User: Fold this.
Amino acid sequence: MEPTADQIIDAHKRILPFINRTPVLINNTINELTECKVFFKCENFQKIGAFKFRGALNAIMQLPKSQAKNGVATHSSGNHAQGLALAAKINQLKAHIVMPENAPKVKVNAVRSYGAEIYFCASNIQARAEKLKEVQDNTGATMVHPFDNDHVIAGQATVGKEIFEACSLLEAIIAPVGGGGLLSGTALSAHYFSPETKVYAGEPMGANDAYKSFHAGEIIPVEKPDTIADGLLTTVSERTFRIISNHVQDIITVSDKEIIDSMKLVWERMKIIIEPSAAVPLAALFKRKEFFKGKSLAIILSGGNVDLGNLPFV
Amino acid sequence: MEPTADQIIDAHKRILPFINRTPVLINNTINELTECKVFFKCENFQKIGAFKFRGALNAIMQLPKSQAKNGVATHSSGNHAQGLALAAKINQLKAHIVMPENAPKVKVNAVRSYGAEIYFCASNIQARAEKLKEVQDNTGATMVHPFDNDHVIAGQATVGKEIFEACSLLEAIIAPVGGGGLLSGTALSAHYFSPETKVYAGEPMGANDAYKSFHAGEIIPVEKPDTIADGLLTTVSERTFRIISNHVQDIITVSDKEIIDSMKLVWERMKIIIEPSAAVPLAALFKRKEFFKGKSLAIILSGGNVDLGNLPFV
Assistant:
């Protein structure tokens, strides 16, 4: 069963005291370039710098007390780790985060700053899973998956819900897709709260599992995903794929060059910092410019966590 | 005579239909680090990416028609050139901009995109002045000085006016100082509209003419100004220095390293893009942390125009 409208409404009420209700911005230059009316939902201004805080917080706040007291755990080197760590801190729970030993120091420090316990492991999926299991066995902590979890999806769905509350008559909305938590949440919110809005996804060509799966009708993972959009390397799960198949119109793939160009445009013209993954929907809009021309649409800027010492601009 | 309260109020009414009334943002992390309550006035979100548009626009809109018809001129490779070019375009006037031949291409393109005529000259003050005179002789265009002009100062004063309308009970406000247009405007707005607010300036050590002049009681130029804060290389004029001497509490100098650290903090935690000059007031706040501790204060983020291919982060 997909999360219901009521579950998304409840999730929003639950997390609203703790999240930033992020602004929706417009930019004249980008409207001229795209020949659209574009509303940018700025989750780069969300706490921890990305939408992931919403889902992690909703999942944690749903845990029964008896279970929550042993803490929560996940493996991630990205925004989910920070989101879970802060959500745990707010709920006075312990967060156990497994990170690859080569994780960027800035990300390790961010997770640590929220008081989480960090466990390093070798940088491969198997080592991560083994380490996580070991941590769970030792602590009794509950694993909170970054996207394969209905409470997480309901939490991410609040991004779309806020967009539809802020903007009426949207003809389309474009979200990035990695594991599909944000995209499936967005699709559900459109379905329930703005059924006239068509939902599209932007996906990097170098990690186009959602695109391939969408067209094949079954999950087709990408062997070695490779893209600058480091938040979108993961593969959709059965849970997110089902929602995407039911409620998403199309998935538009873009190259890393197109992602960097759109990222640079947002930095230069909007003067806000977004991460490569967040630039994917705008790149998708440019890719299908003729199709979207004249439309009123929303784009989700999913996050703003970048390593300033290692930027893709020249 | 300094610009009066009425002149600033009139300037604001005049330019308000064309400018962005920029937001005032707060950031919990920076409040914790500074142990202050800091309100950031985001002129990086102003049109052309900097406050300079306000002063240039006010000056142009004050010109008698008979004079305006021959256009306006200035020499600048920075934000004033863009501000004057856009202000002229809005008023359907010709802007003639003298730029050094080594000006960054991105700035030349920005000025050109507003329809201004560009004249290149050698990269020294004398060549600039000569070229500007030649252009004025040929066109009859009116020179609009970047800061030594009461209409420009009144225009820049609207930044402070908006701050005092948005935030009450401010104990201090910190602006950057280069030629002193923004600082003197801010000081006048505080004097008229929020007399309980004390005005401070941040200035780069490598271009500390305002600091030296302030303490000597007369203008002391810096021979070879050298700082990453490229908007603050100029020396105060008699006009701005008089206002600064009358209404500014103190000038706090900071090193380039301190500027870069504050710039990075704003980028990382606020996810907004500011230029080095805009980071100077925050660096000044950190420099005098003990003094400002516990205060409610405003900081002017003066602009966000940076060359993304040449950033000071490592």
